[in-house]
Amino acid sequence: MIVGILGGTGPAGSALAARLASVGHEVRVGSRQPDRAAGIARELLDKWPDDGLRIAGVGNEAACESDIIVLATPWDGAASLAAQLAPRLEGKVVISMVNALAKVGDEFQALIPPSGSIAIAVQQAAPGARVAGAYHHLPARTVADLRATLDADVLVCSDHPMATSATVGLTDSIPGCRGVDAGRLSAAAAIEAFTAVLVGINVKHRAHASIRLTGYDPAPAGGDVTR
Amino acid sequence: MIVGILGGTGPAGSALAARLASVGHEVRVGSRQPDRAAGIARELLDKWPDDGLRIAGVGNEAACESDIIVLATPWDGAASLAAQLAPRLEGKVVISMVNALAKVGDEFQALIPPSGSIAIAVQQAAPGARVAGAYHHLPARTVADLRATLDADVLVCSDHPMATSATVGLTDSIPGCRGVDAGRLSAAAAIEAFTAVLVGINVKHRAHASIRLTGYDPAPAGGDVTR
Q: Which residues does chain A have within 8 Å of residue B110's beta carbon, measured at their own beta carbons?
């Protein structure tokens, strides 16, 4: 699978780039500044020289030429970048992993954007894209450390069943991660906001917390799970 | 510990009543209608005759005469009940387990009350109380089944450290549950909203999901965890 990561030079995007490349995907890290993306790609390749990573740094436009696109910009740039690239995102699965958080004193608070969530704002900005929300709760530092084992359920929400299944599939390709169909894109508001709680727990307890569902035993593939 | 559960005749409140009684607490199920509360208490005692439960059904006012108060009303009655009982809640630990959810078509959506969360609305309605948010994510049916083992982290948030520690302590008295200090009461908005995601997953996948944190290894008691 070729995965493009828009705004992939930040901690969350570059961590996911390394992790996805480590399990065999070809990753295109995108940035407004292709030179910067190339620098990040070089850093990742230098950091993990024995892992056979395939990571290239390119412009955001070129990163759209991928099977799946991940949006990993800061929250206040996500929808405008999606609008700008909308023609290139037409028909594509676009995964928003963006969280809107603000540090207020010693705590992290969730910001509720006017459209309810960043994922919905992205879907509205690129209506032809098949937007899913996912990867909000993964601790970047653990994702970035390819010798660390992940242990997380990834909540996936989308109004496009094909985007849900593609995102769950991409997630399941990462050892220690399990994709969970968490319903429609309207769930993104609560999923994104919950990231503030996890970040707060991480700061307070010096943890790198993610979540696992208990009492969840999904029906086998092909089962009658959607009714 | 004597625990009063206001509005304790609904599924979430009566489930918690049975569970807390099963681990030795004395529980006072409160209702606007004491007869109704007495009926629920009788049902629980009849259902688990060999468990030595101590559960009484009383009016909400009488339920306030407890060491810890749990608020388990429907969301639209929580703040007004807290306002009405405010003098009796003065200085007490009051745990809001209330979630504001709406079923919209086939999905559950979180409602954001004007004050941000039900827990904050309760705190504002009873400013002398020490309000904590907790128990939002526990699956009522599993909690109610005293032969079922719970497997859940309970996120606790409060602006009163004493309410946090009392709620974490109460939680830790339930086998299979672990209380986690999730920060200030402002976190309640995201914690409450996230319940809609879990309920949606439960409906979609016929599950009884709760959450566990991974990558979370709390510092020992007395450790420097709050900085």
A: 189-190
